[in-house]
Specification:
The complex is a heterodimer of chains A (224) and B (186). Chain A has 224 residues and is α/β, with parallel strands linked by helices. Chain A has 4 helices and 9 strands, in the order αββαββββαβββα. Chains A and B meet through strand 9 of A and helix 4 of B.
Chain lengths: 224, 186
C-alpha cells in the first residue's frame, strides 16, 4: 500500500475533514480542517491504517496570519513503512487542541515541548507543564515575537535570565544572494538586506579588477 | 678546576629536613594535588574524560581522582554549556566546595556562552562564579586543558597564603571585638 493510498483511505473515512493528499518529493501531507477532531483522525490512523509510530509533533508560528498556529504530526507505520504528515491550524485566541496521548503515549513529551516553547495547550493531557524551561518562566521562547537574545526574568532560588549580547545581531545568511559568497553571514539589518547583497556583489567586482579574481587579496593562480 | 658548592639539599649533611617558607610549602602541596570537581555539562565533558583517560592522563599533574563530590575537590572544571536552568545548581555546588578552591572555565560555552547567544544559555560561567583560568576551544583539546591546569598551578605558586590567612584572622578579630563591645586595637 502506498502512502497516497493510505491518505486516500483516511479521506474516505472522514470526508470533508481531510484535504486531498499533497505529495512533494516523496512525502505525503494531509490537512485536517478542524483541530478539534485530531484525536479521532489519529486514532483511526493508528488502529485501522497501521500508523503505529508517532515520529514527531511540532508547531509553526504563522506570525501575522490567522490562524496563528499550525500543529504538524508526523506518522509512520512499521508494518507498511509509510510516512504521513497531518497538519492542523489553531487560532491564537483559542491556542488549544485535544491531546493525542490517548492514541500514542509518546506524544506526552512532544506536547509538553510545544506548550513550553509556543504556549499551545493540549486539552486532556495528564501533565501539561514546561519541559525545557523551568516552571514559572514567564515567556514562550520560540514564538516569532520573542527575541533570540531573550528577555530578563527572575525566579528567586530557581533561575534567572538576562538578554544575551548580540553584537550586531544573529549572524544568519541573507536569502536571495547569487551564490554562497554573496550570502555570507555578516551583521544583518533585514531592512537593508537587498542593498547589502548588491553591495557585496559590487565589492566582488572591484576585487576582480584589482586582484584578478573575486575572492579578495592574494592570487589563486599566478598572474600572467 | 671547579669548586662545587652544594646549594641543594643534601640528606647526609642535613638529615631529612627541608627548610622553606610556609607559603612555598603550602602552595606546593596544593598545586600538585588539585583534585578536580568535573562539572561536565555538555560536549566538553567528553574531552575532559579524554584528558582523564590514559593517553593524556591528567593524573600525571596531580589530579589523581575526578572527585564528583564538591566537599572533597579543589578545582571545579566547568566543562560545557551552562544553561540558565542549571546555573543556580552550579553555583550551589561551587558554594559547597571547601576553601581553597579554584575554577577552570573549559571551552567556549563556559567562558562566554559560546555559539549560544540565546535566551536559554548563561553567557559565561563567570557571571556566577569567580573563574581563574579560561580555556578556549570547542571543545578544547586535552592538551589545552592540561595547559590550563599547568597555568593554574603557576597561579597557585604565586598565591600569598599566609598573608591571606592573616587578613582573614584580623577581619575575624575585629568582628569579634565589635561583638564584645571592646574598643581598641584589632
Amino acid at each position: 500500500m502506498s502512502t497516497t493510498d493510505l491518505a486516500k483511505e483516511l479521506k474516505a473515512q472522514f470526508g470533508e475533514l481531510i484535504s486531498e493528499p499533497a505529495e512533494f518529493r516523496g512525502e505525503v501531507t494531509v490537512k485536517v480542517a478542524d483541530a478539534e477532531q485530531i484525536a479521532e483522525v489519529c486514532a483511526y490512523a493508528k488502529t485501522s491504517l497501521g500508523f503505529d509510530y508517532l515520529v514527531d509533533i511540532s508547531s509553526v508560528d504563522n506570525y501575522g496570519s490567522d490562524p496563528r498556529w499550525t500543529v504538524v504530526y508526523e506518522l509512520y507505520g512499521y508494518g507498511h513503512r509509510c510516512h504521513l504528515r497531518l497538519k492542523t491550524d489553531v487560532g491564537e485566541e483559542k491556542s488549544e487542541l485535544p491531546t493525542v496521548t490517548t492514541v500514542w503515549r509518546g506524544a506526552d513529551w512532544h506536547e509538553r515541548e510545544i506548550y513550553d516553547m509556543m504556549g499551545i495547550r493540549f486539552r486532556g493531557h495528564s501533565d501539561l507543564r514546561r519541559i525545557l524551561m523551568w516552571d514559572g518562566y514567564p515567556y514562550f521562547p520560540l514564538r516569532k515575537d520573542f527575541p533570540l537574545a531573550g528577555k530578563p526574568s527572575e525566579l528567586p532560588d530557581v533561575a534567572f535570565t538576562r538578554p544575551a549580547p548580540q553584537e550586531g545581531g544573529p549572524f544568519v545568511t541573507i536569502a536571495g544572494g547569487k551564490d554562497a559568497v554573496a550570502r555570507e553571514p555578516r551583521v544583518r539589518i533585514p531592512e537593508t538586506d537587498s542593498i547589502e547583497l548588491n553591495a557585496r556583489l559590487e565589492r566582488r567586482h572591484d576585487d576582480k579588477e584589482v586582484h584578478g579574481h573575486a575572492y579578495g587579496p592574494g592570487p589563486i593562480e599566478p598572474k600572467q | 678546576m671547579q669548586s662545587t658548592t652544594e646549594l641543594a639539599y643534601n640528606s647526609k649533611i642535613e638529615g631529612d629536613v627541608v627548610v622553606t617558607r610556609v607559603d612555598a610549602a603550602l602552595n606546593w602541596f596544593r598545586k600538585n594535588s588539585l583534585w578536580p570537581m568535573p562539572m561536565g555539562l555538555a560536549c566538553c565533558a567528553i574531552e575532559l574524560m579524554a584528558t582523564g583517560a590514559s593517553r593524556f592522563d591528567i593524573a600525571r599533574f596531580g589530579s589523581e581522582v575526578m572527585r564528583f563530590s564538591p566537599r572533597q575537590s579543589d578545582v571545579m572544571i566547568v566543562a560545557g554549556t551552562v544553561t540558565y536552568k542549571m546555573a543556580l545548581a552550579v553555583k550551589r555546588i561551587y558554594d559547597q566546595m571547601a576553601e581553597p578552591k579554584w575554577v577552570i572555565a573549559m571551552g567556549a560555552c563556559a567562558s562566554t556562552g559560546g555559539m549560544y547567544r540565546s535566551y536559554a544559555v548563561l553567557q559565561g560561567v563567570d557571571q556566577i562564579l569567580p573563574v581563574d583560568i579560561y580555556v578556549a576551544g570547542c571543545p578544547p583539546r586535552p592538551e589545552a586543558v592540561l595547559d590550563a591546569l599547568i597555568k593554574l598551578q603557576s597561579k597557585i605558586t604565586r598565591e600569598p597564603v599566609v598573608k591571606k590567612l592573616e587578613i582573614a584572622a584580623h577581619v575575624g578579630e575585629s568582628r569579634a571585638t565589635k561583638h564584645a563591645g571592646i574598643t581598641g586595637v584589632a
